Amino acid sequence: MKKLAANKVLCMQPVPQTIVSCRDKDGRNNALVVGFTANVSLDPPMVMVGIVPSRFSYHMIKEGGCFVINLPKKGYKKEYEYLGSHSGRDGDKFAALGLNWEDAKYINAPLLTDCPVSIECSVVDSMMPGTHELFVGKVEAVHVDEEYLDAKGNILWDKMDLM
Asked: How many CB atoms lie within 10 A of CB 4?
């Protein structure tokens, strides 16, 4: 028999865990853990991230109009926890962790190169239904470590040890 949960908040746990990276107009990189991510369209390919306006990265995405969704492996737990518990307002998280990164190919944001998948997105819409602004991003490119692609370029999700 099913019973009612005591709390309706976070009744669905999103999977996989994600890190969103972005850059401000002055060229400063930042990354944060984001619990609200989802696919929203297959054609054209689009995804969504939900960011609370008080977060340091919010204005970077709002003003820059782009972001990268990075999918970390389980071995990236230390970095993931730091990125999810520290604010870029208090210091450069990339420098503090010695994060490996490179410029995205199609947008003005960093890719976290130690994550096996990085998804470049251009913001095409946003809405504020509640606590988080939902940024809908058109997928511009999906970068995947070569070892996780088959001969046709399809992603081998079952070979990755994602968080």
From this structure: 5
Q: Give the angle subtended at the CA of 90 by the CAs of 112 and 131, to the nearest 5°.
A: 75
Residue with tokens 């969504």: 48
Angstrom distance (rounded) from CA 91 to CA 88: 5
Contact 55, 67 (CB under 8 A): no
Residues 36, 13: Cα–Cα separation, whole Å: 9
Q: What is the pTM (predicted TM-score) of this model?
A: 0.93
Which amino acid makes up residue 11?
C
Residue with tokens 């003003």: 63
**Range list of β-strands (E), 6-163:** 18-23, 29-34, 37-42, 45-51, 66-71, 101-103, 110-112, 117-127, 133-144
Summarised one tens digit per residue, pLDDT across range 131-149 is 999 999 999 999 999 999 9
Assign domain 18-159 to its CATH architecture: Roll (2.30)
Residue ranges of domains in the chain: 18-159
Quote the CA–CA distance of 161 and 76 in Å, as a whole number: 10
Q: What is the spatial distance between Cα 79 and Cα 161, in angstroms, rounded to a whole number?
A: 16
